[in-house]
Specification:
two-stranded parallel ribbon; mainly alpha; elongated; 98 residues; 4 helices
């Protein structure tokens, strides 16, 4: 099991609590006798400010037309790979149209 974290300083305490729950919960409450190991991957510090809230905010600021969707892709591609940015902008645009 892999989990991404921003940094141990920011997310460490919460991640440790989740690890305890994920380790002991299935053993005590479920049919699992051997816990699934968790490997933590710490992100690059230059992206510590990136969150799902920031991504949603960028997408909600301009989601009315194709040119604005391209603007979203450009803004998002500073935070995520360009091919991912295009898919996120497209999905968010479709969701907003509904």
């Amino acid at each position: 099991f892999f989990r991404g974290i921003r940094s141990w300083e920011k997310d460490g305490r919460d991640e440790r609590a989740l690890q305890i729950l994920n380790t002991w919960g299935p053993i005590l409450l479920g049919p699992l006798y051997i816990p699934i190991p968790t490997i933590y991957i710490e992100g690059d510090p230059k992206y510590n400010h990136v969150s799902s809230t920031l991504i949603r905010q960028i997408c909600s600021e301009s989601s009315t037309g194709k040119s604005q969707q391209e603007e979203q892709v450009n803004s998002l591609s500073e935070l995520v790979p360009k091919n991912v940015a295009a898919k996120v902008a497209k999905l968010y645009y479709q969701q907003r149209k509904q």
